[in-house]
Amino acid sequence: VISIDIIALRTPIFVKVFGSFATLMFVQARGWPYVVTFWGVFDILTLYGKNPFAQHWLFWQEFVGMCNKQNPAADFLHGSFYLRILLSMIFVGVITSLKRLMLATFLGRRSFAHYGPEFETILAKMILVSQVAHLARRIEANVFSPTTMLASGYAYTMTKANFAGLASDSDDFEPSSPPDTRKSVDYNSHASESPASQHGFGESLGKSVYGKKLISSMSRRNMMTSDNSSSKVEMMKLLEEWEEPDLQANAASKVSIKDILQFRQAMSLVSDTYPFTQAFGPASTRAICVESADQIFHLLLSKNPNIEQKLAFETLAELAQDKDGELIHNKVKALVRLFRPDRKGFLTKLDFITSIDQVYRELRLYRANLSNSQQIDESFHGLINILHYFIVILVVLIIMGFNDWNSLLSMTTFFFSFSFMFGPASSKYFEGILLIFVRRPYDIGDKVAISDPETDTSASGSNTWFVEKVTLYATTVRFATTNEVATYSNGSLARLRIINAKRSPKAIVYVYNKFGSDVPFRMIQVFKASVENFVKSRPREWAQLNGFRATRVNLEFNFIEYVIVLTHRELWQNVAPILQSKADLASFCLLQG
Questions:
Q1: DSSP one-letter string for 285-305
Q2: Which of 201, 264, 482, 585 could form a disulfide with 345 if both were Cys (CB 3.0 to 4.6 A apart)?
Q3: Which residues sit opposite 487 in a β-bridge?
Q4: 588 near 534, Cβ under 8 Å?
Q5: d(CA 45, CA 43)
Q6: How far apart are the first and last CA of the chain?
Q7: Dihedral angle, C-alpha 245, 248, 252, 258, nearest 10 °
Q8: CA distance 434 to 451
Q9: Contacts made by residues 239-242, CB under 8 angstroms, sequence distance 24+
């Protein structure tokens, strides 16, 4: 207790003297491995041999005869059998500590490499939500100025934070585009309109160069500009969409012990009851989280109330100002990416609560996945323990001088006869372990489609199953359409194609339309322009229009078929909004036709 729980964990003595690796090994040896190793070393140094102290602890006194030469120790204390026992104790303790250390490091690096980047993004969203909540409380207290907020530490805790995954979506806005290629926003032209119809980005964004680019990019209507020198981002939007290849191979090997410890500490600090701090309110369940978000929305709305009950993004943008009043560009991007205001810069109550609800669901699913991963790691640890203790027993028998190996070899023939019976089952068993432990094709909450690798998938999306439980040996899934529950052995899934909707990029949707062959091409172009305007008027649904082209010409039935290819904001993981948006677009096309 003193050497590990106090000296090794609470003081820097062990780290400075032995180094981080040896210190971590001491910590992993906590329990019986440390006790066995300590007593083995202590006995060899003090209680083994022919020296007087080893023979009799109180050899210098004559009063207690049991502890002096009156009670002879014979040859046991300096015999080979006693030495073999002590060496076996040291071997078992050291090798078990090394096994624990290697497994903890290996499993910790795997967990960090798999879950660390996702936790970084979720944590950034949680901090943004908590800052919005603190902002609402400051508005409630009628104390709202950059000086007081900076002094209280509410507004600027993320000025230097990493907004990975929150400020990198070029579909939302193009801050690097030159201002002359955008239609500028005239705030004065809306003076006669109701407050909710005016732009909600406010003067702080409207006056800055960066804010003008942001507002212009979110308000523009035409995909192409009349200027021949179109911006770099405009050209990128016209090019075919392409995913950058993943160059971070073998990321787990680059994870340090410090990263593992920081990751575990950060997870331990996330509260179940107040994940977005106490300023937001309780969020232990989804219903309570929605109730707290509703309260925060009304507090924020009280700063700039309007008839239509819409929250101006200008209110949230106050969080993106530094102490000098300058905009923090990455933070503006993160706020827009998280809350997604409409083209005029407003959010409805549903939009605001939906954004926070999305963060809540991501956090809950993430914690469930991490907990399930720990259970899988424990199962794997149990399998390693079987192999470990089998080898340890053999080595201990060798150390103790065991020579009757013929009897052990005769037992192996008995097990060998059963290998033909269990061989195929064992093969499937280990294939399933490799699937879950090495490949990790899915986590809890993911939607997966399971099919034969030689069969093509549907362009309209695959029938998916919700992953409800994952162990090292079996996976429990629920059919998304009918809520039927099924269980697969992991070995049966090893050779199948597993499509993970959550890990797939944004959904690509195809909408087909038929026009008579006598329809002028000019009318087709007008139809295409109306579809472009329809898509751009719904930034929370559609990321971009990828293509509009003819796919089939049928002269027999006198029609030409066109396909509209679009990228949705959602992944196939959240299929309901995708299908609804697709239905809305199909209805719009029908009315236009």
A1: SHHHHHHHHHHHHHHHHTTS-
A2: 201
A3: 476
A4: yes
A5: 5
A6: 79
A7: -140
A8: 19
A9: 240/546, 241/544, 241/546, 241/567
CA distances (Å), 236 to each of 76, 232, 543, 544, 567, in order? 83, 6, 13, 11, 15
- Number of C-beta neighbours around residue 242 at 10 A: 7
Q: Are strands 485-489 and 474-479 parallel, antiparallel or unpaired?
A: antiparallel
CB 283 within 8 A of CB 170: no
Mean pLDDT value of segment 423-446: 86
Q: Is 473 helix (H, G, I), strand (E, B) or coil?
A: coil
Q: Kindly tell me the burial class for residue 279, based on how many C-beta atoms sit within 10 Å of its own C-beta (0-12, 13-18, 19 or more).
A: buried
Distance CA 400, CA 378 (A): 32
**What is the phi/psi pair of residue 270, to 5°?**
-75, 120
Lowest-confidence pick of 113-122, 231-240, 287-296, 344-353: 231-240
| Structure token pair of residue 399 | 């150390």
CA distance 331 to 329: 5
339 within 8 A of 348, measured Cβ to Cβ: no
pLDDT digits (tens, 9 = 90+) for 175-227: 333 333 333 333 333 333 444 345 666 666 666 655 666 666 665 544 333 34
Q: What is the CA radius of gyration of the chain?
A: 33
Each residue of 502-516: pLDDT tens digit?
888 889 999 999 999
CA 378, 382, 386: angle at the middle one, nearest 5?
165
Element (H, E) at 458: none
CA distance 172 to 165: 13
Q: Which residues contact 176 (CB under 8 A, 6 or more apart)?
A: 213, 231, 232, 233
β-pairing verdict for 542-554 and 447-451 = unpaired
Give me the mean pLDDT over the 304-324 stretch.
Answer: 83
Q: Which 8-state DSSP code applies to residue 320?
A: G
Question: Inter-axis angle of helices 20-28 and 257-269, to 10 degrees?
Answer: 50
Residue carrying the six token digits 């000296």: 7
CA distance 218 to 205: 13
Interacting residues of 126 by C-beta distance below 8 A, sequence separation 6+: 270, 275, 276, 359, 363
